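Worked example 3 (structure in, sequence out).
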């Protein structure tokens, strides 16, 4: 198992280097230098060159990238061009909310999608309903569902707060009330996707020889479903859940904007609008490393569930 973990960690390093270099090159080259954007088109070349030198954007691309990576991994992301606030502190304040939102969405989708399609009686009852829910969940955009939930649950029924966010310090009930609609909005797509993946795999495993042998022994359908079919059908969900972090951040951009929540998604949107390079680079780095770590955890979980995978390393 240690060899398996070591192999996966080593595979992460070149991926992180390549992706962060592409991120840095795209942000600092294709969008223009920070000085040119900050000073405007009428600025003289001398003023642009002087400001670029002061900001550390006057050297070769590789040199600037290595300097940025060195500072970033030492915890120094620089200061925001727009607010002059420490980018590190901005990330620290925004990241927990996005992580909580993503964690709720993944956990709810990961638990309920297999459960609703594993109980034999429930499967026969909700199979058609699940197909409709999955189709609707995949096709409806997050922003539309979010606005619909606001209209129904907040405006018409007055059950939940319209927008905003309450930290845990304001009370558990107040915090959860503000999280219900954003979590439902973000969970919608992943529950639908997980359901389609799980049902497809469940049907394939259901016709396997070992399942037929279990039936021939007289085992109940519920026991066969949970002891034999579910452990073998859930493996693709583990992989997809690990790959979903990047998509979750993309979904969080929309959800946090619709519900006015101060998370990473909203921070990224504000940084792009203001061409705030340090914030854009820091958020991009956190997303890249986060996706890699989630993929590593998914590989480890996959290896624990299916020991034969460990032999790959």
């Amino acid at each position: 198992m240690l060899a398996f973990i070591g192999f996966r960690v080593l595979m992460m390093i070149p991926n992180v280097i390549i992706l962060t270099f592409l991120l840095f090159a795209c942000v600092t080259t294709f969008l223009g230098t920070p000085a040119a954007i900050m000073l405007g088109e009428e600025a003289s070349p001398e003023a642009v060159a002087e400001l670029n030198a002061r900001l550390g954007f006057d050297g070769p691309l590789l040199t600037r990238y290595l300097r940025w990576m060195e500072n970033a991994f030492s915890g120094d992301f620089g200061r925001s061009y727009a607010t002059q606030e420490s980018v590190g502190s901005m990330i620290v304040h925004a990241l927990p909310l996005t992580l909580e939102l993503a964690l709720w969405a993944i956990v709810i989708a990961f638990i309920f999608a297999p459960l609703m399609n594993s109980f034999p009686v429930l499967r026969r009852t909700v199979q058609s309903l699940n197909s409709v829910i999955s189709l609707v969940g995949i096709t409806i955009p997050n922003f539309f569902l979010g606005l619909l939930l606001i209209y129904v649950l907040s405006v018409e029924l007055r059950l939940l707060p319209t927008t905003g966010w309450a930290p845990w310090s304001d009370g558990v009930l107040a915090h959860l009330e503000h999280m219900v609609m954003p979590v439902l909005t973000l969970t919608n797509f992943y529950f639908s996707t997980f359901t389609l993946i799980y049902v497809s795999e469940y049907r394939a495993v259901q016709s396997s020889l070992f399942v037929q042998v279990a039936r021939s022994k007289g085992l109940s359908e519920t026991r066969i479903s949970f002891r034999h079919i579910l452990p073998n059908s859930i493996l693709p969900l583990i992989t997809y859940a690990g790959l979903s972090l990047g998509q979750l951040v993309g979904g969080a951009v929309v959800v946090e904007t619709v519900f006015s929540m101060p998370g990473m998604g909203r921070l990224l949107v504000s940084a792009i609008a203001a061409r705030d390079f340090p914030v854009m680079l820091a958020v991009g780095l956190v997303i890249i490393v986060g996706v890699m770590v989630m993929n590593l955890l998914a590989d480890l979980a996959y290896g624990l569930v299916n020991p034969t995978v460990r032999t790959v390393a």
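Notes: The chain has one domain: 90-312. The radius of gyration is 24 Å.
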